[in-house]
Amino acid sequence: MLLATTAALGYQAAVRVSPGQVEILRSVAALAPDVVGLFREPIGFKQTATGDYYVFDRRGHTVYSVDEGGGTGRKLVQIGAEAGRVIEPSAFDVAFNGSFAVADSPNGRERVQLFDAAGVRTGGFLLPGRGAARVVVGSLSLNGVGTLAFTGRSIVMSQPDSGWLITEYGLAGTPTRTMGRLRRTGHESDRQLHLALNAGIPIPDPAGGFYFVFMAGPPAFRKYDAEGELIYERTIQGLEIDQVVAAIPTRWPRRADGDGELPMVAPTVRTAALDRTGRLWVSFVVPYTYVYDAGGEKVRTVQFRGAGVIAPSSLSFAEGGRVLVTPGCYLFAPG
Prior knowledge:
Blueprint (H helix, E strand, L loop, with lengths): L13 E3 L6 E4 L2 E2 L2 H4 L5 E6 L5 E5 L4 E5 L6 E5 L13 E4 L5 E5 L6 E5 L5 E6 L9 E2 L2 E2 L7 E2 L4 E4 L5 E6 L5 E7 L9 H6 L3 E5 L5 E5 L5 E5 L5 E6 L6 H5 L7 E4 L2 E4 L5 E6 L5 E5 L4 E4 L5 E8 L3 E2 L3 E4 L5 E4 L3 E3 L3
Parallel strand pairs: 2-27
Antiparallel strand pairs: 1-2, 3-31, 4-5, 5-6, 6-7, 8-9, 9-10, 10-11, 12-13, 14-15, 15-16, 16-17, 18-19, 19-20, 20-21, 22-23, 24-25, 25-26, 26-27, 27-28, 29-30, 30-31
């Protein structure tokens, strides 16, 4: 079975309503339905230089490889607490050569494991202490080890506990540098809430430097140069997310966590990624995505539609600028 082409169902690649309004991107293809049916909760979907797809099924505790045609899937990494398997996974990323990293939590300890393209474990390490889920959607932790970026040479994570937004690790698990001062939140007296509002998504820029997208509280992003110096910060605004921003509370409910309590912080941003032209795509908990150029100016407002309207849980970019989106494992033309 070949990659399912939604154009056969009458979908168009893109429809621009009018300048300055929402641009509708309709899926042009998807993984075969029987392959997608294997996944319980796919929140990672990437394509490598060989053409193969990798799918991270969080709830299935599994990483799959899918052939370029999209019709055959096989398990690369399966459930388990031992080395080479994953349990309670929260983050996943693939380098262009097909090697990948998975973050999970055996016995509540944050762990990062590295695998080659065939799913053979090549390394890994435990992070000190026990992980605290600071930003949560349902049962999914979206911060700390839950927002991992893997370049093939290093691992980049959001770790506000360190006093910095971004921590970069070598492949052996040694921190090599930190960058990005925490933003002011107005909740500095509540350390756990202050840290939660500084959790986010670190995104390495192949051209050099990093982006950091804040996940909770007032939406914003920063751009850093290759030396870790701040280039600019942008507040994210738009009609489509006005209600989300207006609903950000000033008091946060708390939940039990081990011997103490943590604030229950819901995100405003769900995922973000950098395309191959250097544009930053930021998707929200409502089904809209803003696209920013390298100078930090918003240039597009996009809504993804497959079988219905999609609020992306992950974004990635393949050859030709195609956008890969979960849930649903859809492919979109860049428009």
